[in-house]
Backbone:
């Protein structure tokens, strides 16, 4: 893709520069954020499909294990898990990460070209090449925009991976990143061979019994405050143990407190260590939880954000819930 600038000067667009880096990569790596979600995995696998068609020997490594729910995705078996990523990679694609720390432990050669593809609110432009647009519904959409211009076949495998990124990051077309653009793109992907019923069944109707058991434990202790405007759920390691569930099984739990009438901010506290909590936030209406999460060095999007906080459960809860009260009251 080339754009004619003033005076007939040819400008290489960012998409073109990424394509040039991709076709000339001899050891490309694709990675994404810790606690991989559907957008991270779907985007990685779609890009993998495109790069392999270009004849590139692609490696995918994530610092969190692949949640079982995504094992149905085409090429999911190539995803490697390692607590720290290092290797002699020359082009490194970092997908769906608002900042470099979100990857986890990453050591790559200084000379490697880092390509950042992302759609987060105020994401950092940490790449040598940055293909970042907040208005994109998902990183998968941005991957699609890139690779549709490449000399490759957009097959059903690639389409299924892109579709999964869009479906999961729009909350199955519930959130306000559900636009005419994202719905049109979903329709195009169906034309390319995606089976929406199959994907939905794999994502939402295939859960282990332990998930529901854990949800029941969590819901029993759900707390409402600020006259029902803030709802919070706590999942401790003890509850995980009691239910036999794995950490990723809580992925959709926050939708339950959020679904309550009158709730403006929903919060999920998930214990990830002694005195260490992963905090997920969701909002409805005019409450920007990305700003709330930024107060704790996290980030995300207007209506969906997160952070990690150290402290006892009581402390962490109080700090977040107090601030959520102010946000929900528009302070
Ligand atoms: P989650 O609640 O984990 O589903 O994350 C919701 C959104 O917040 C996603 O877009 C994440 O990328 C973002 N997010 C979650 N945790 C963090 C964090 N510790 N730092 C920055 N962004 C985060
Ligand atoms: Mn993500
Ligand atoms: Mn995303």
Residues:
């Amino acid at each position: 893709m080339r754009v004619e600038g003033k005076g007939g000067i040819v400008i290489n667009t960012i998409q073109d520069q990424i394509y040039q880096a991709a076709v000339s990569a001899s050891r490309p790596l694709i990675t994404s954020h810790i606690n991989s979600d559907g957008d991270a995995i779907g985007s990685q696998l779609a890009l993998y499909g495109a790069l392999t068609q270009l004849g590139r020997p692609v490696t995918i490594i994530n610092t969190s294990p692949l949640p079982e729910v995504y094992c149905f995705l085409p090429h999911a078996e190539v995803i490697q898990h390692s607590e720290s990523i290092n290797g002699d990679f020359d082009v490194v694609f970092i997908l769906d990460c608002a900042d470099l720390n979100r990857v986890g432990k990453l050591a790559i050669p200084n000379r490697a070209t880092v390509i950042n593809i992302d759609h987060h609110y105020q994401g950092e432009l940490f790449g040598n090449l940055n293909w970042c647009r907040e208005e994109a519904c998902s990183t998968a959409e941005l991957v699609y925009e890139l690779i549709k211009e490449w000399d490759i076949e957009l097959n059903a495998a690639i389409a299924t991976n892109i579709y999964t990124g869009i479906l999961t990051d729009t909350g199955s077309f519930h959130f306000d990143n559900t636009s005419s653009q994202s719905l049109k793109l979903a329709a195009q992907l169906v034309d390319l061979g995606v089976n929406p019923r199959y994907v939905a069944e794999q994502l939402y109707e295939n859960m282990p019994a332990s998930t529901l058991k854990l949800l029941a434990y969590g819901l029993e202790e759900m707390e409402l405050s600020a006259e029902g405007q803030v709802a919070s759920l706590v999942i401790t390691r003890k509850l995980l143990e009691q239910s036999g569930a794995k950490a990723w099984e809580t992925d959709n739990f926050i939708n339950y407190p959020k679904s309550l009438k009158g709730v403006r901010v929903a919060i999920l506290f998930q214990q990830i260590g002694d005195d260490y909590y992963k905090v997920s936030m969701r909002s409805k209406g005019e409450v920007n939880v990305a700003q709330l999460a930024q107060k704790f060095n996290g980030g995300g999007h207007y209506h969906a954000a997160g952070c990690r906080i150290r402290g006892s459960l009581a402390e962490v809860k109080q700090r977040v819930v107090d601030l959520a009260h102010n946000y929900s009251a528009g302070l």
DSSP finds eleven helices and 16 strands in the chain. The radius of gyration is 20 Å. Residues 209-328 form a domain with the Diaminopimelate Epimerase; Chain A, domain 1 fold (CATH 3.10.310.30). Residues 39, 96, 119, 138-139, 169 surround manganese (II) ion (ligand 3) (CB under 6 Å).
